[in-house]
Amino acid sequence: MRPLARLRADLATGKNLEIYLTAAIALAVGVLGVFDLVDTKVVGAATLATLALVAVNALGPRHQVAELEKQVARLAEAGPQSGGDFLSGDTTRFDARVAHALELRFVGVTLNRTIRSYVNDLRKALERGASVKVLVIDPAGPVPEEAARRATIPDQPDVFEHRARSTLYLLRELKNAEGRLEVRLLPFVPAFMMFAADPGDDDGLIHVELGGHRSPGPTPGFTLSNRREHAWCQYFVAEFDRLWEVARDVTDADWYPARHP
């Protein structure tokens, strides 16, 4: 950020005001002293006041560093983070971000329940011009059989075919929105389910859920922040891009199968 832009941003948000005040006083004292516009005692008093401000400003970072050292020490005593603290099916952070995201990405087996729960948010996102990309399995090929075997119900591939087609029907209703909706179909079952909101931004979020085999209870997952876990966010973005490249575009026969026997 340029210096003037940073100055305007700091003044608008109230950040670093004491530093700017110190600099302004020091500049004023220097100018007055050079042009001999005030008494020497006044210049001396202003100089001491400026030094006092500098000393006070220096205390803030010292206290912050001391507090940070205490927190690091507490974390070290507590030991490494447990899996229970990290893995969670909670998508609250992602849910809140969907409402104003400009780029959304979804990948999963059928995403039937997911798209159904987000359909209103997706419609609003598209209406404000957001980009939405969705990847699900191809219901017309052999992939539903693979999904059924993986879910330990090998004799029920129609379950996954119907769910994938139901997802396409939901997305079909969003096609005419002003934003850009892109849907592709995978020739295999993806290894994970992923939702991404503005993955290219510093404050972007990615939620990942692990694939299960009809296990009872919530599916384990985790939410990554691009600011804190940048390397892992980049990993999952690259994974999505690779899946996108090998998937095929949705055709009219997929959108309207009844019209294409």
List strands and helices in order, with pairings:
Elements: H1 3-13, H2 17-34, H3 40-78, H4 83-86, H5 92-98, E1 103-107, H6 112-127, E2 131-137, H7 143-150, H8 157-172, E3 180-186, E4 192-197, E5 205-210, E6 221-225, H9 230-246, E7 248-249, H10 252-255
Parallel strand pairs: 1-2, 2-3
Antiparallel strand pairs: 1-4, 3-7, 4-5, 5-6
Describe the fold and architecture:
The relative contact order is 0.11. A seven-stranded mixed sheet has the order 6-5-4-1-2-3-7, sandwiched between helices. It folds into two domains: 3-78, no CATH class; 85-259, 2-Layer Sandwich (Endonuclease, Chain A), CATH 3.30.870.10. The mean pLDDT is 80. It starts with a helix and ends in a 6-residue tail after the last helix. It is α/β, with parallel strands linked by helices and 261 residues long. It is 54% helix and 15% strand.
Keywords, separated by commas or semicolons:
261 residues; alpha/beta; Endonuclease, Chain A; 7-stranded mixed beta sheet; 54% helix
